[in-house]
Amino acid sequence: MTTPATNPLRRTARAGAILGLASLALVACGRDAGSDAPVEQGEAIGDGKATGTIEVWAMGTEGEVLGDFAEAFAEENPDAEVEVTAVPWDSAHDKIANAIAAGETPDVTLVGTTWMGEFAESGGLEPLPEDLVDSAAFFDGAWGSTEVGGTSFGVPWYVETRVLYYRKDLAQKAGWDEAPTSWDDLKQFTQDLQSKGGAEYGIQLQAGNTGSWQTVLPFAWTNGAAVTNEEGTEYTIDSPEMVEALDYYTSFFDEGISPTRMLDPGELESGFADGTYGSFISGPWHTGLVEDQGVDEDQYGVALLPGVDSAGGTSFVGGGDLAVFSDSDNKESAWKFVQWLADPATQQGFYDEVGDLPAVSESWETGELSEDPQLTVFGEQLDNALAPPAVPTWEEVATVIDGEVEKATKGDTSVEDAVAEMQRQAEQIGTGL
Length: 433
Known about the structure:
Family: Belongs to the bacterial solute-binding protein 1 family.
Helix content: 25-40%
InterPro entries: SBP
Protein name: Extracellular solute-binding protein
Largest sheet: 7 strands, mixed
Number of domains: 2
GO molecular function, one term: maltose binding
Number of strands: 12
Mean pLDDT: 90
Order of helices and strands: EHHEHEHHEEEEHHHHHEHEEHHEHHEHH
Distance between the termini: 47 Å
Keywords: Signal, Transport
CATH topology of the largest domain: D-Maltodextrin-Binding Protein, domain 2
Number of helices: 17
Low-confidence stretches: 1-6, 13-35
């Protein structure tokens, strides 16, 4: 185990899943509105080197460092020049949407995984060329985020997923030497953290509010629920599996194992440090945050999400995808740049640079990604993780789910009524496909 100062996961400063901004209606530009005809993958690109200027939009840390990192691509393609514009995440959605509507886009953009359906269905993104990359090389859940109506419109660039964080010292005090592996174990584990380990709350689960669906849906997926049909044309939220999963989720609030109020910024991390919260579910960025609050690496552990039985649970996969705009002036070279960024060696190099977890599974087979105990847990969880459906209206429906989860956790509505209302509003909204 590395020391807190050198923990490789501390480089991962991803602030949760890609920001869930309100969906913006787009003008159809390149696809016939209302057409049910499937979109074919693009034609394969040539074998030559990239040429010309490749304009790229990237957000967050990626936007800040990609320009310098891409110099290696320029060395391999001396007739090409990569120009990167850093775009703040909080304005990225509207900037992309407005550019598509105006027909004035760069060539390549980083796209939040939950935005792919919206921008692809608008006609703003170019279908992925045939044989550009091998889809089997990527984590299944990450690749699924690029597919809209059976067609891929991009390539996964980096990923994140959620695991169980727990105070090992409190667990040992409560008689647990290993993390729970089943739902029954998780309930007993969190109860014991309270009654025997000294935690005020055995676990902190999100009691609604923005993004709570990212914690709730893994329980539903683990239980066999699906929020849309396979084609993505209908929402299928109201199922016995969904009701059962939400009933299990809300039981932690009903039994006082998790607090029902929303926490203030920083409260989870400080509460984990002082023993208020014995466990929680989150992504790799939280290793650095809890260590900054004084939690020693020997005091806490990370573990795969428990399954209904001991087979293992399904988690959420988020991150960022790379896409080429339909209005790009240099599409073939743009795709060559995307192809280069998706190469396993390039992905591992970008991890070394900024700590982004690679979407290509081969990149996890060497170096820190294969040797660090915490990292390997995230890597294993990525083998059993799903993205939300890549449909244009997902952000709207996610907001509905967040609201109904909050009502259910606070006891303002029954689980059955909450799920039925999710379905009712989702049907009114439609998938957009």
